[in-house]
């Protein structure tokens, strides 16, 4: 039987490769039982192999699923921030915080993480002229000419409020404070461009409101603060979640190079002018202190208010200010020449009061009696004067008989009387000289011939201790 099988399958066996082993089943009584046992063993081996392979495949699938799920985890660094997304939409009311964050894995979920701190934007040479980098600053200034102009689109500058040009370098450090606004508004790689545009606009606005001299004199800290406030205001209007943390100005603002050639001389002249102004101010202050004391400012303010009220024609306000001026002049706060003048004036008034005032009061007391009995008053005063003349020490009475009144008589007085008269004449001259000296020491006390009513139309004067103003 074996030979028959081999002969019939000869063509098929020739097309196959040479067998490595031949199994021969003997046809006897136990052959069928042995064949079933062999087949069962083979089936069991195959089943075990398939089960083992299936279990390995399950483990691999579980590992792949676990790795897929773990791919949705993300660690956010301390200097980072961002947002979580599901199918491209931002989820959550707040941005990502530092630490481990979980989300659905891609393509379902994802993360947009940004570098949140110490980001920089630089406007470069936008507001500076393009010059030869091989030259130093001094060489550039020396070679500058009035014919050198700014090339539009190449040389940059800023326009000041007085029409001058200025050059300035500018940069900024910024950070993301609201990642939700930032993700909704800006593509991350364009964030620096937004900040740069805000810096450019802020620089134009700030410099355009001040003069070139104010820009050059302004402290850098103040200029940086102004530009930061302006640029931050623009970014806040965009609601982009960006905060400018610092403004960097590498060097002092400068005018065009040709102007800098003469700027040293200009700066020296300006310093001299400021020094002169300071000296003049100090001198004026010393004069005012000498005139009215250390509290002169309050008196000047009152006088200024009085003149303003006078110019406006407000008589009530003018009178009120005059009363305040009078109170100020009579207070202890005023010293210096003003206080001395007032003191001398008070003394002069007291002197007048004791001389002319007494005569005036005596005249006032005699006037009613004189109107009733003029002859009696005149006779009484004549007798008083006659008695006063006779009471003088150097008077020498001489009795001449009435019947020889027409006879001329040469009489020589006593020697003692003549010496007394001489001494009294010297005393009168000395007293007159002292009075004249007092007048010279008090030039503010004007005599009648020195008063000019055609002078200034507005003036202050003091009458009975009260300050009065005069308007023509």
Descriptive labels:
alpha+beta; Tetrahydropterin Synthase, Chain A; three-stranded antiparallel β-sheet; 55% helix
From the alpha carbons, calculate the radius of gyration and give it in angstroms: 59 Å
CATH class (first level) name of the domain at 119-261? Alpha Beta
- In the sheet with the most strands, the strands line up as 3-2-5
Count of separate DSSP helical elements: 15
CATH architectural type of the domain at 119-261: 2-Layer Sandwich
Structural class: alpha+beta
- Do you know the CATH topology of the domain at 119-261? Tetrahydropterin Synthase, Chain A
Number of strands: 12
Give the ordered list of helices and strands.
Answer: HHHEEEEEEHEEEHHHHEHHHHHHHEE
Proportion of β residues? Answer: 5-15%
Indicate the low-confidence ranges by residue numbers. Answer: 1-13, 439-444, 455-459
N- and C-termini, Cα separation:
163 Å
Output the CATH homologous superfamily of the domain at 119-261: Band 7 domain
Shape descriptor reads: rod-shaped
Characterize the biggest β-sheet: 3 strands, antiparallel
């Amino acid at each position: 039987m074996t030979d028959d099988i081999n002969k019939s399958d000869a063509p098929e066996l020739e097309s196959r490769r040479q067998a490595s082993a031949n199994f021969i089943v003997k046809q006897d009584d136990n052959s069928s039982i042995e064949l079933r046992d062999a087949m069962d063993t083979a089936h069991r081996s195959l089943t075990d192999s398939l089960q083992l392979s299936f279990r390995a495949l399950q483990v691999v699938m579980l590992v792949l699923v676990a790795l897929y799920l773990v791919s949705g985890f993300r660690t956010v660094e301390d200097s980072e921030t961002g947002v979580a997304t599901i199918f491209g939409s931002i989820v959550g009311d707040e941005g990502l915080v530092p630490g481990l964050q979980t989300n659905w894995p891609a393509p379902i979920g994802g993360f947009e993480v940004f570098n949140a701190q110490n980001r920089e934007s630089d406007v470069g040479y936008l507001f500076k002229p393009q010059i030869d980098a091989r030259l130093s600053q001094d060489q550039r200034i020396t070679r500058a000419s009035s014919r050198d102009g700014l090339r539009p689109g190449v040389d940059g500058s800023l326009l000041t409020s007085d029409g001058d040009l200025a050059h300035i370098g500018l940069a900024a450090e910024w950070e993301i404070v609201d990642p939700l606004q930032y993700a909704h508004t800006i593509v991350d790689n364009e964030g620096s461009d937004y900040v740069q545009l805000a810096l450019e606009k802020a620089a134009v606005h700030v410099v355009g409101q001040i003069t070139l001299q104010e820009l050059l004199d302004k402290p850098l800290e103040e200029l940086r603060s102004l530009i930061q406030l302006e640029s931050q205001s623009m970014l806040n209007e965009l609601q982009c979640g960006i905060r400018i943390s610092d403004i960097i100005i590498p060097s002092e603002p400068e005018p065009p190079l040709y102007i800098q050639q003469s700027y040293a001389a200009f700066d020296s002249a300006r310093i001299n002018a400021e020094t002169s102004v300071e000296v003049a101010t100090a001198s004026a202050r010393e004069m005012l202190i000498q005139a009215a004391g250390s509290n002169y400012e309050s008196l000047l303010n009152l006088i200024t208010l009085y003149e303003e009220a006078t110019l406006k024609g407000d008589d009530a306000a003018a009178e009120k200010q005059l009363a305040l001026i009078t109170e100020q002049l009579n207070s202890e706060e005023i010293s210096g020449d003003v206080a001395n003048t007032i003191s001398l004036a008070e003394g002069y008034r007291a002197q007048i009061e004791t001389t002319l005032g007494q005569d005036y009061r005596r005249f006032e007391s005699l006037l009613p009696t004189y109107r009733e009995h003029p002859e009696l008053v005149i006779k009484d005063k004549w007798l008083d004067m006659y008695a006063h003349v006779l009471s003088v020490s150097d008077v020498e009475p001489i009795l001449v008989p009435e019947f020889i009144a027409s006879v001329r008589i040469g009489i020589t007085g006593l020697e003692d009387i003549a010496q007394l008269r001489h001494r009294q004449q010297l005393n009168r001259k000395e007293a007159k000289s002292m009075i004249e000296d007092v007048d010279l020491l008090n030039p503010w006390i004007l005599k009648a011939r020195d008063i000019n009513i055609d002078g200034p139309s507005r003036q202050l004067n003091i009458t009975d201790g009260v300050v009065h103003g005069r308007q023509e």
